[in-house]
Amino acid sequence: MDGWQYLAVLALCVAVTVPLEFVLGARVYRRPRVLLATLAPVVVLFGGWDLFGAYRGDWWYGIRQTLGVRLLGLPVEEWLFFLVVPLCAVLTFEALGTGRGRRDR
């Protein structure tokens, strides 16, 4: 079970914030180009930072805490983190920014 914890937390983050798209009208998924333009720099910058840090031995990922699947040297869960957490943040930001009565969208 330890290997699934990272994915479980990411899934919980998505499960909690996805309803913001439909209930509060965040309109994040309806604008895929804008979403991609938002997420791509995060993945490149922080993915590169993690790769560099892991290469230098500044940090590492426990085999028991991940599934063991690696992409470019990092656990797949870490790459998903760089997609899921910013996505959840954007969903929350957009949902809160579309408060009732706001007409400038």
Element layout with pairings:
Layout: H1 5-23, H2 32-56, E1 70-71, E2 74-75, H3 76-97
Helix pairs in contact: 1-3, 2-3
Explain how this protein is built:
It is a single chain. This protein has helices spanning 5-23, 32-56, 76-97; strands at residues 70-71, 74-75. With 105 residues, the chain is mainly α. It has one domain (2-97). The radius of gyration is 16 Å and the shape is globular.
What sequence of helices (H) and strands (E) makes up the elements?
Answer: HHEEH
Structural category is mainly alpha
The rounded distance between the terminal residues' Cα atoms is 44 Å
Using DSSP, what is the number of strands?
Answer: 2
List the defining traits of the structure above.
105 residues, two-stranded antiparallel sheet, 3 helices, carotenoid biosynthesis, single chain, intramolecular lyase activity, mainly alpha
What's a quick, concise take on this entry?
The protein is mostly helical. It is 63% helix and 4% strand. The protein has helices at 5-23, 32-56, 76-97; strands spanning 70-71, 74-75.
